[in-house]
Amino acid sequence: MALYRHVAGKDDLLDGLVEALLTEVPPPAAGLPWQDRLKHLATALRSTAARHPAVFPLLLQRPATTEHARQVRDGVCAALRQAGLDAEQAARAERLISTAVLGFAASEAAGRFDHHAQDVRDTDFACLLTAAHAVIRACSLPSDALAV
Fold first, then answer.
1. pTM score, two decimals?
2. Which are the contacts of 19, defined by CB distance < 8 A and separation ≥ 6?
3. pLDDT in tens, 90-119
């Protein structure tokens, strides 16, 4: 209960955990090409999941709501804008790519892939990052071209 002197309630505490997870690693250098910034962030999130497997799934359950957590998300969107997407397309690509990266990282940290050697998991992650480029291209298409 002493903790609640520092936070407004459970939601505030959980939002703080999301922020702590997202901001654990310093952001990539601003001068890096957008592809390298995205790879840096994805790799950093994978490492964060390995260090904090019990709380990492919060990133799949809660949005980034604090100022510092939103800065991480906004950094991803900025890289996607540099890739040529408009604001709406970048937001869509961020949702899709981050969900895939977070899901892989959470699954790996939880032991789902333990029966695979580390080099297999690393190759799978590299394949996921390559697939992210296809997501970026798809998100650049007009909305009517994406209709199911």
1. 0.89
2. 64, 66, 68, 69
3. 999 999 999 999 999 999 999 999 999 999
